[in-house]
Amino acid sequence: MFGAKILSKRKSEDSSSFSLKVKAATIMYFLIELSSYVYSIFLPLNSNAIWFIVGVLIYLPAFCFLILGLLNFAATPANELVTTGAYSISRNPSYVSDVLVKTSIGIACFSWIFLLIAVIDFVLLRIIVVVEEGVLLKRYGTTYSNYLTSTPRWIGIPKSEKKQYLTPQTYQETL
After folding, report:
1. Which of 32, 64, 101, 165 is the most buried (most CB within 10 A)?
2. pTM to 2 decimal places
3. CB neighbours of 65 closer than 8 A, spacing ≥ 6?
């Protein structure tokens, strides 16, 4: 729940009941985030290379999607579910943008390590997102359940199957 704690103006869920797997994924994600920012400073850029241009073409819309998501999040009252703007395209615009930005940096700098970081981020986010969805389902109930069925988890990826969704009753079993 690292992302929610940093950006949230909303009341955070008590993380003491989360499983070791979720806590480990959250800590690993946080460490990878920090280390990738430091690592990116030392990556060489060759602005004449086709890889740089392709990376920038991925980076620009990803960054704009991130900003739009943050603006939508900030504009929504704290007690309401964010479902407009970027959140009408993806349930996780910040995470989608994060992975796309890392992918674009890996391509622009022709860094296999940075591309691997993007893949690892995506794997860790798949663990974190399931728990976050459970927290939101518990908090918003039917409203969030309807949102789950109408909005894809990731951009461009079809909606998740019903069986992956948690109900308020089964949410506690996953922690």
Report:
1. 101
2. 0.75
3. 86, 89, 93, 96, 97, 100, 155
Q: How far is the C-alpha of 151 from the C-alpha of 157, rounded, in Å? A: 10
| 139 CB neighbour count, 10 Å cutoff | 15
pLDDT in tens, 56-97: 999 999 999 999 999 999 998 888 899 899 998 999 999 999
Report CA-CA distances (Å) from 84 to 71, 108, 151.
Answer: 10, 31, 11
The reported pLDDT for the residue numbered 170 is: 53
User: Rg of the Cα trace of the chain?
Assistant: 17
Distance CA(105)–CA(51), nearest Å, equals 10
- Amino acid identity of 33? E
Give the pLDDT mean for 118-136: 88
Render pLDDT for 11-22 as a digit per residue (tens, 0 to 9).
Answer: 455 555 567 777
Q: Residue 50, exposed/middle/buried by CB under 10 A (0-12, 13-18, 19+)?
A: exposed
Report helix, strand and coil shares of the chain as percent, to nearest 5: 70, 0, 30
**In one letter, which amino acid is 98?**
D
